[in-house]
Specification:
The protein has 309 residues and is mainly alpha-helical. It contains 16 helices and no strands. The relative contact order is 0.10.
């Protein structure tokens, strides 16, 4: 699932450190700062998504994750902050931990297993932050998802789409790490309902990010878990319409989800080359996502034999 992943306002790492200093300076200052902390971190996270150097993000993001965790302890009902937490942990797990697991899988099985276990734990933490955010807005939300998911999700509004997306994306990603985790597998209908609720509320949100999610979600379930390759294809085309073909991740997702599923090597290569043809600097708010997707595309093109028989 391409992460993907997020558009935030620009504020560099010094801004994060400064915000942390204010929050930890004293009780009264902390109270004032917490009122705006989610906005600060939305702004701070944008510095990452506009970055062109993935290694810089890889090295600095863990410190930001720990800072977000500390802030959540101080403001456990701040839905905006919890949305940022869910997105940041999902981004880190997907773009760095799970990507490394794929790359070392053929040469270091033990290392890959450790990384996948870590990635799954990070995805579940992101999911829990998302659920905590929804619970803060709708008391009883988590229990309601088990007892009456349709009625519970019906409460949500357009403003909840980011929380619904990040929660569902993290949840589904955790399941994708190990499809034999039967406890998570039992949650699949709830994940599906959650992402469909987001689509019903605002299907164009994030310039097609919901539809990009559905490409792999539908293709992954095709042939046994309620998915459909035909619907996955429709989501692919709709994602392209909404992002105007500017997202490398959309092409990479389609290559892995659709071309591999149908064993169409020619389409696989064509889609990845389209991803590589995008000028990442032309779309600053998508720069990191495009650079990461293009790295993935190059790696996939160099490992064709692992995907086609």
């Amino acid at each position: 699932m391409s992460e993907n992943s997020g558009r935030f306002v620009r504020l560099g790492l010094p801004g994060i450190v400064l915000a942390a200093g204010v929050l930890l300076a004293g009780c009264s200052l902390r109270t004032m700062a917490m009122k705006n902390v989610s906005g600060v971190f939305d702004s701070a996270m944008e510095a990452y998504t506009t970055e062109s150097d993935p290694e810089l993000v890889r090295e600095s993001l863990p410190a930001t994750l720990m800072m977000i965790k500390a802030l959540v302890v101080n403001s456990p009902d701040n839905a905006g902050l919890l949305t940022t937490a869910a997105s940041a942990y999902t981004l880190y797990a997907h773009a760095f931990v799970m990507e490394e697991a794929d790359r070392v899988g053929a040469t270091d099985v033990d290392r890959a297993r450790t990384l996948r276990s870590r990635g799954k734990a990070l995805y579940l933490r992101a999911r829990d932050y998302g659920l905590q955010g929804l619970e803060s807005k709708y008391p009883g939300f988590r229990t309601g998802l088990n007892d009456a998911p349709d009625r519970t999700l019906q409460q949500t509004t357009t403003g909840d789409v980011p929380l619904l997306y990040w929660t569902a994306a993290a949840w589904a990603s955790a399941l994708s790490v190990n499809a034999q985790d039967y406890a998570l597998l039992a949650d699949l209908p709830v994940i599906r309902k959650m992402i469909h609720r987001a689509l019903d509320l605002d299907e164009a949100w994030g310039e097609g990010r919901l539809h990009e999610f559905m490409i792999s979600f539908e293709a992954g379930g095709a042939g046994g878990a309620g998915g459909s390759l035909e619907q996955a294809e429709q989501h692919f085309q709709r994602a392209l319409e909404l992002n105007h073909g500017h997202s490398a991740g959309t092409y990479v997702t389609a290559a892995e989800a659709l071309a591999v599923k149908t064993q169409d090597k020619g389409r696989f290569q064509s889609l990845l080359k389209k991803a590589l043809a995008i000028d990442a600097d032309r779309y600053p708010d998508m720069r990191l996502a495009n650079v990461l997707a293009q790295q993935r595309a190059r790696w996939l093109l160099n490992h064709l034999d692992a995907y086609f028989y």
